[in-house]
Amino acid sequence: MNSRPRATPVWLRIARAYLRASNPITYIARRSIKSLDEKTLFAGITRNRRLCVDVGAGTSPYRQEIADCLRIDRYIAMDIAPSDSTAVIADGSRMPIATGCIQLVTSFDSIQHIPNYAGLLDEVARVLEPGGAFVVTFPFNYCECDVSDYHRWTLAGMEFDLRAHGFELLLLTPRGGRFFALACGMNWVVQHLLPGQRQSWRMSKTAVPIVRAIVVQSLTLPTTLLQWIMLAIDRLLQNDGCYMGGIAVAVKPRSRFPL
């Protein structure tokens, strides 16, 4: 089912720009995208035209980096809920996309919200062209989100699941370490000091939730700054076994999935 994007109010674009710039988690994702070598990532691709499906895209905060850094010709935002940037409304475990026609699938902090995550991985393997790539970020030591939240992964757990679904790993790395994970937990506590759940971009745009969001952002300024400081400290220290989450880059091998 397709949805025509709606016009975005100026105030909402400003709010999203602030959140995008201030959130260290989105910074890590943008940095990771920019660090990928598109020639290595698409070494097994035979087609010149590159299509990307972003599963659980929300408001598509990484669209520009994906398009520019990875030279994507067409970006398709997919989510179960409509937004002003959603192109396809669908469940990631049942994609309305033909087999083997996509060169890149991305999923940023969405896989934990899909009950049948194994079905998602099967669908990613199905829609990808042999040689295509899958970029996924996922949580480990992170508090429960305010929308349906089902799963957490260690790095080894995500590697096992990806290999079990036929993927080969190109990159698997943690996001932050023990101090960043601690700061993320503290930030979550402050976000939930006010009653009611924080529904992020899916919240209604009426006065009460908007005022609440402004208050929450004001209260979390100190813990957001702490997240940045702890992220910097973690980069200086050796860390094993405790991290906020991870990012994996995998490919669909041509030998296992021939055309």
Which descriptors would you attach to this protein?
Rossmann fold, disordered N terminus, alpha/beta, globular, seven-stranded mixed β-sheet, 9 helices, 259 residues, 39% helix
Low-pLDDT runs of 5+ residues are 1-5
What is the 3D form? globular
Question: N-to-C terminal Cα separation, in Å?
Answer: 28 Å
CATH H-tier superfamily of one domain: Vaccinia Virus protein VP39
Query: What is the string of SSEs from the N terminus onward?
Result: HHHEHEEEHEHEHHHE
- Per the CATH scheme, the topology name of one domain is Rossmann fold
Strand content: 15-25%
The CATH top-level class label of one domain? Alpha Beta
Q: What class do helices, strands and sheet pairing give?
A: alpha/beta
Helix content: 25-40%
Q: Could you give the order of strands across the largest sheet?
A: 3-2-1-4-5-7-6
Number of helices: 9
CATH architecture identity of one domain: 3-Layer(aba) Sandwich
Radius of gyration: 18 Å
The number of E-state strands comes to: 7
Task: Give a verbal description of the structure.
This protein is α/β, with parallel strands linked by helices. It has a domain of 181 residues: Rossmann fold. The chain is 39% helix and 18% strand. The chain contains nine helices and seven strands; from the N terminus they run αααβαβββαβαβαααβ. Strands 3-2-1-4-5-7-6 form a seven-stranded mixed sheet, sandwiched between helices. The radius of gyration is 18 Å and the shape is globular. The chain starts with 9 loop residues before the first helix and ends in an 8-residue tail after the last strand.
